[in-house]
Amino acid sequence: MYSLFRIFFLLIIISIVGCSSTVTVDHLLLNARIAQFEGDSLFYKYSNLTLINGKIDRILDTNSIAFNSRNSRIDLKGAYVYPGFIDAHAHFLHQGMVLKSINLQGTKSWEQCVQIVKKFIINNPEEEVYRGQGWDQNDWFIKKFPDNSQLEKLSNRPILLSRIDGHATLANSVAIKESDINEKSKIDGGEVISKNGILTGLLIDNAQSLLIIKKPSKYEKCRALLAAQDEAFKVGLTGIHEAGLPTEDINLINELQKNGELKMPLYVMISESPAELTYWLDRGPLKTNLLDVRSFKFYSDGSLGSRGALMSKPYSDRDNHYGFEIRSFNYMNSAAKRLALNEWQMNTHSIGDSANRQMLKIYQSFLNKRSKKDLRWRIEHAQVVKPIDREAFRYGIIPSVQPSHATSDMDWAIERIGPERISYAYAYSSLRESSNGILPLGTDFPVESMNPIYTFYSAIARKSPDGHSKEGFQVEESLTREQALKGMTIDAAYASFQENEVGQIKIGMWANFSIFTTDIMSCAEDSITSLNVAETWIHGERVYVKPK
Ligand SMILES: [Zn+2]
Fold first, then answer.
1. From the CA of 204, how far away is ligand 1's center (Å)?
2. 368-395 as b/e: b if 16+ CB within 10 A
3. By Cβ atoms counted within 10 A, which residue in 189, 201, 245, 513 is the most buried?
4. Cα(347) to centroid(ligand 1), Å
5. 446 upstream amide cis, omega within 30 of 0
6. Strand 237-245 relative to strand 85-90: parallel, antiparallel, unpaired?
7. Separation of 209 CA from ligand 1 center, angstroms?
8. What whole-number distance in Å separates Cα of residue 267 and Cα of residue 239?
9. How far is the CA of 158 from the centre of ligand 1 (A)?
């Protein structure tokens, strides 16, 4: 009797243990090589992963105990699983607007442009305004500015086609009439072109501002955001730092994320203005699972390409020209004071050596006072920084850089600033050294391609992904593959105060992955630009699988 009782008792124990060894999770990923950082080095851990509620639940041996999964059980067959890539500086909404517009880049004639516009209108009859971009008459067989006569039959709604450099727009007569532009219209710094006393629809430079263009509607913006999201999934992006939007657009993003259509996590910088500062400082930061608003985007100067970057000595290719101060440094200083007091992040576009020096000085004066505040203020771009000024980054200022800018600008930047200044421009390795090893990487898309693999390649090879540069540009400033990957993951997470949520494959973090079938850390350098992401996961959901 006693032994029978014992057997019965043993059976109960076995059944309890048996039950508890079959755990139910949301997703089970088998045979993954998961990338794990250890300081500045990286190793792969061959593991199974379980996911619950969008987060990493367990990292297990591949021969671990049994699991049931509610949703999926996926054998990754040894694929390389990286922490989801984050773009630390981009224009997500703008990218979507470009994707949704009529693309006239690479056209060989005006007739070809008209055919493309016609086809677009037939396929998109619901548009309120037809916007296109990218034509360049210098690429055409007949190198002549177009007129709007062939656009007239295509639609009774406004058609606006902007030239590749944004310095001219061809508008149909509906758009011209709606804007009250006529033969007598005149403006400084621009021209309304007419031929034999009749408007051609072509508006040059400032004349484009005469167009009363309906701002993109809410519907157009929603569609643009979703188009940008689709493209981002395809290249493995799992998070984006949106470098400047007004409150109106931030609210729209929040709405789209809440209804489940927009799945992309966004760290949105608010485009600063006195009104936006007052509104948000009163209101306080906004944080949801997908949206983080706790920073402002400022511009201290313009860009190097258009000679707007603020330099301490004149441009090498334009006498007596120093670039532009977009916001006065007094304004910047008082804004910084308010932000420091309220513990908001300040992120400032600074390209020229003078803009960088002045902003670093302002930042430093607020970060230097043994303050306990964790502000993580950022310099966006940090393109031309004198070596002596780099020291300021040691105070916890973050340089946020875009490696593809270096490889896109390398052909002409030397003409703008000359050999001496170029020697310390785009100095990513040196900047990283000064900023205690923190260097978030981004692209600034749509200015550059949104593909993070190009960022990775440009950062390590210092060569252009289009292959036109055989020799690397200032290769002593290249990053190691580990440093570049950290820049796209851990450092980007840190720059957005999200280092406990994303940027690594760790238990408790969001299950965000960029998965490849090739080891991006050891493959041949010249094969990197042709790598394609195999799967993209965001918050435990597989949002993209490469088609077979
Ligand atoms: Zn930007």
1. 25
2. eeeeeeebbbbbbbbbbbbeebbebbeb
3. 513
4. 11
5. yes
6. parallel
7. 22
8. 8
9. 29
**Whole-angstrom Cα distance, residue 504 to residue 36?**
7
pTM for the model? 0.87
Question: Could you tell me the distance, in angstroms and rounded to a whole number, from the CA of residue 513 to the centre of ligand 1?
Answer: 25
Domains present along the chain, CATH in parentheses: 2-78 (2.30.40), 94-210 (3.10.310.70), 218-545 (3.20.20.140)
3-state helix, strand, coil split of the chain in percent (to 5) is: 35, 25, 40
The Å distance, Cα 351 to ligand 1 centre, comes to 11
Ligand 1 centroid to residue 243 C-alpha, Å: 6
CA of 415 to the centre of ligand 1 (A): 23
Tens digit of pLDDT for each residue in 115-140?
999 999 999 998 889 999 888 888 88
Q: Do the Cβ atoms of 267 and 317 come closer than 8 Å?
A: no
CA nearest neighbour of 309 among 298, 297, 325, 323: 323
Tokens of 20: 């508890």
Query: What residues pair up with 299 in beta bridges, in sequence order?
Result: 349
- The pLDDT tens digits of the residues spanning 45-91 come to 999 999 999 999 999 988 776 778 888 889 999 999 999 999 999 99
| Exposure on the CB side of residue 39, measured as CA atoms within 13 A | 1
Q: Please tell me what DSSP assigns to residue 290.
A: S
Distance 10 CA to ligand 1 centre (A): 67
